[in-house]
Please model this.
Amino acid sequence: MKDFIYSYPTKVYFGEKAAQKALPIELETIGKTIMVAYGGGSVKKNGVYDEICGYLKETGKEIVDFSGIMPNPTYKKVQEGAVLARKKGVSFILAIGGGSVIDCCKIIAAQAVNDQDIWEMEFKNHKYPKEFLPMGAIVTASGTGAEMNNGAVITNEDIKEKAGVLGAYASFAVLDPGYTMSLPKKQVISGAFDTLSHSMETYLGSPRDVNLSDEIGEAVMRNVIRNIRILLKDMENKEARTELMWASAMAENGILKIGKVTDFQVHHIEHQLGAYTDCNHGQGLAVIHPVLYRHMYQDSVKQFARLAEKVWEIKTEEKTPEELALAGIEALAGFVKEIGLPSTLTEMGITDKSVLKKVADTCNLTAGCCKKFSREEILQILEECW
Model:
């Protein structure tokens, strides 16, 4: 295990009526003007928006609406939110939604109080903001774990780059599984696969010797697989959604990453695919994972074999480590089909094959991956995903 320092700034309110418990306490010393940020309006249709705004009004807050945050939030949307926050004298940002809304707000919180362009600051000057508007998160779609860290995935449309940007931590997060009950099946399953992806990509980073973080990660992965299967039979099963909501948080609150250098090569490929196609994140991960792992497993046979045994529960008798590792990858590929996610890019509706080289040429090649991929290999993997 590598040396580490662990600290966690976000207070979590989990369970039924968590928002009602959290908001009077957390906003008591916050200024009067609250930006309420959300996406396409589903939070208004399902009643969550009115409920949250009712709590805010009870505490005497004034509300500034910021709506229309898209599934792959753009840098232009970040700047729009930052301008509004400055203009209205916003003292606190409350993100209501899933990962896209929360990610967008993390960077709005940074840009609103920094004169320098955040993208230029981080990617050209390699400096990071230190001042932020305070923010909180009301999670209505789990899977990304965005409420548990300060990283945000933002698409800069002008340069066709979808990248991780560092912004604000939420000072508190509300995780009420009841808020996820109106989500459609496709969105729930895609989000849950994102949680599985986070856990796998952390697990397969270095060092290769399994530590306590990895063993906790194995439990998280088994939990996600089991509860996705429960939901496939009964989408109204609230207990399964509760488990998946906490698994999502566990995958991204840093605990699984303690003592690790994480991989996340699949995520970086998918991010750039999203920059060129605006595709669904969880679906893209589901397509890429098995294909990339077939190219990668020989560089970490022992860990892939353990993943097969401990997570996919494949019997080890009469199997070499290589055979066990491959069996685990095929179990993953079979699981993708079982839960109704696409196995190819064409199944996702991507029709322009020319984007594959652009993605391979521009995606970040991660340091934590057990195999050092070339851009030519990334292109080959994407072509096999086609």
